[in-house]
Amino acid sequence: MYKTILLTVDLGHEASWKKALPVAAGLAKTSGAALHVLSVVPDFGSPLVAIDFPADYQEKALAAAKARLEELLGRETPGAMKTQAHVGIGRIHEVVLDHIASSGADLVVMASHAPDRVREFLVGSQADRVVRRSPVSVLVVR
Question: 99-141, pLDDT tens digit by residue?
């Protein structure tokens, strides 16, 4: 059914993977699909902000995120399930959309929660942005 499943997780929020990871792992096992798990480190968004951080901050943030993601997968994925951990940096929905293409994913699994109204108005939902722009099916787990 699926060949490659891409699960997105926010390492800072357990809710982003607590329900979605078992769903993605189950689908991967049933389909015989590869499971790719992606976490995105937000970028600075502005050169004015970037100057306040050490020059190697982003590299260290990516390395720390990769280590945390691998630890999470080692702890939370069933037995011998093989997963591929990926980290990216940038605007979350853009990195996810780029990774759909680069991984060859034919299904994306994401968690979503209802943000408060002000946050939803100002920044919107990352899951919503991916759903609207994704070239493949997206399963949103609540």
Answer: 999 999 999 999 886 665 554 554 457 888 898 899 999 999 9
Give 26's strand partners: none
* CATH number of the CATH domain containing 83: 3.40.50.620
Q: What is the distance between the alpha carbons of residues 1 and 135, in angstroms, rounded to a whole number?
A: 17
In a domain, 121, yes or no: no
In the sheet with 137-141, reading across from the earlier edge strand, the strands are 83-89, 34-41, 4-9, 107-111, 137-141
pLDDT of residue 76 exceeding 60, the answer is yes
Domain of residue 64 covers 4-115+135-141
Q: What is the pLDDT of residues 9-66, one digit of tens each?
A: 999 889 889 999 999 999 999 999 999 999 999 887 666 666 777 888 889 999 999 9
Q: Residue 32 and residue 45: Cα distance in Å, rounded?
A: 38
Decide if 42 is inside a domain.
yes
Assigned domain for 26 exists: yes
Return the number of other C-beta atoms located less than 10 Å from residue 109's C-beta. 26
Q: Is 45 helix (H, G, I), strand (E, B) or coil?
A: coil
